[in-house]
Design a protein that fits this description.
- With 137 residues, the chain is of the alpha+beta class.
- The protein has a single domain (10-135), classed as 2-Layer Sandwich (Beta-Lactamase), CATH 3.30.450.150.
- It is built from four helices and four strands.
- The chain has a four-stranded antiparallel β-sheet with strand order 2-1-4-3.
- α1 crosses α4.
Length: 137
């Protein structure tokens, strides 16, 4: 069994997803919510009733991106604009890199051990749900 301090457990993922789902209901926006572990591997995912099916892979890839680069997808997006140091990064990693709001690293004792990714609404809605989910970690 993995060291609980070094990764995100299924128990952690369930707690993170529950908090995200609660926030999504509060703002009346069905979402896809994904949690990955320290290796960027999917631990758990939900698609709320009515959430876009096209956002399933986006939520998973937002979580992957946040873990792969240890930075929020929104922040990575700021560095990925034309003329910026990471311009074109979204075309790497077999197209899995997402550069808009909704992916947030999960930290334990200051170390990134996983990430959450949310997709299904506007960038602001994705961000607010992801922030609520990450806060539960």
């Amino acid at each position: 069994m993995a060291n609980k301090l070094a990764t995100v457990t299924l128990e952690d993922a369930r707690r993170v997803i529950a908090a995200g789902e609660k926030r999504a209901r509060e703002i009346n926006q069905p979402m896809n919510i994904a949690v990955v572990d320290h290796g960027g591997n999917l631990v758990s995912h939900i698609r709320m009733d009515g959430a876009w099916i096209g956002s399933v892979s986006i939520s998973i890839n937002k979580a992957y991106t946040a873990r792969a680069f240890n930075i929020s997808t929104e922040e990575l997006g700021k560095f990925s604009q034309p003329g910026q140091q990471f311009f074109g990064i979204h075309a790497t990693n077999d197209g899995r890199v997402v550069i808009f709001a909704g992916g947030i690293p999960l930290k334990r004792d200051g170390e990134v051990v996983g990430a959450v990714g949310v997709s299904g609404g506007t960038a602001d809605q994705d961000r607010t749900v992801a922030e609520a989910a990450a806060a539960a970690f």
